[in-house]
Write a structure and sequence with these properties.
With 376 residues, the protein is of the alpha+beta class. The chain folds into 2 domains: 195 residues, 2-Layer Sandwich (D-amino Acid Aminotransferase, Chain A, domain 1); 151 residues, D-amino Acid Aminotransferase, Chain A, domain 2. Helix content is 27%, strand content 28%. It is built from 9 helices and 18 strands. Strands 1, 2, 3, 4, 5, 6, 7, 8 and 18 form a 9-stranded mixed β-sheet that branches. It starts with a helix and ends with a strand. It binds pyridoxal-5'-phosphate (PLP). Pyridoxal-5'-phosphate binds next to α7. It comes from Pengzhenrongella frigida.
Length: 376
Amino acid sequence: MTTTSDLDALGARGDSSTAFELRLSDTPVPTAEREAEIAAPKFGTVFTDHMARISWSASTGWHDRRVVKYGPLLLDPASAVLHYGQEIFEGLKAYRHADGSIWTFRPQANAARFAASARRLALPELSEEDFLGAITALVRTDVAWVPSGGETSLYLRPFMYASEKYLGVRTTLEAEFLVIASPVGSYFGAVVAPVSIWVSQHYHRVGAGGTGAAKCGGNYAASLLPQQEAHERGCEQVCFLDAATNTQIEELGGMNVVVVHADGRVSTPALTGSILEGVTRSSIIALLTDAGHEVDERTILLTELQDGIADGSIAEVFACGTAAVITPIGRLAGEDFNLTVADGAAGAVTTRIRGELTDIQYGRATDRHAWLRRLV
Ligand SMILES: *Cc1c(COP(=O)(O)O)cnc(C)c1O
């Protein structure tokens, strides 16, 4: 169990969460109800009692760091975000270890990506200190909401939007940053079943010079119609090709793609500026490299994928991201093809690397890359 001195030690390491004023909810969810909700959480449907919040204005900068009761926002109908989509977000998890301590995984990488996304969307940058402080303050306040057992966690969703009441088109003079938290189980359900992928040959997520490398709501808005098309074609997820040539694999709507060749080499699309740099992607590259796999970040043509799956030189394909961790891709389909990857089941490398990553996240394996950061 966590002792007071452990927490003091955490605090002594420069704890920016103490900058947050706690305004506790007067109507927290009753204990029995909360325990029922975190026992079998469905992804992103239940939220904790509080949210962390920081406001920004061009004249005063970031101010009013607080943890407040979770609830609806007051938004002027003329708020810029509602008209021009100036919004960014992040996604990371807090994991409860067997000894009761609670940890996040590489949150500095999320903080850096959030700052980069803010730059691209012309929003104010938030410091790593405030990003980590907000997460820490919220998780400590709602610590009872962090589930335990199985592949459960507290999903953390930091986001920022342009709140200025102004219909002219220019960058905002006011913004809000919030973190909300949701207890979650496994993203796609109880078992890690392979998913089927529809390769969209008509729609693209982003183009060169666009916002593909930023984690912004607009990219997701653009992916929803193709995602619906994937469903209509009997597939669970959509995979996008590059907008310039319509030949190169980019990524899914919210996950990166990794290809495992039969000879053990691994390839993943290079970061061309139109792909989101996943924290899971980069962690997997490190773990695969540690395990002796040669990992290339390069152009992967759809035709290479089709030919390799057909002739067996591609043994496994998987998707990766924080929410679903690693999800095997069992089938790849498009306008004129429908291919089963190997026997359609999760491959050996996919399964092993998923186990290695989750063992680190849940404290069951040595954190040799120092990826974990203790919150409680
Ligand atoms: C968030 C996201 C990912 C995965 O990133 P992680 O840091 O691994 O969660 C991949 N692609 C897109 C488009 C994303 O928004």
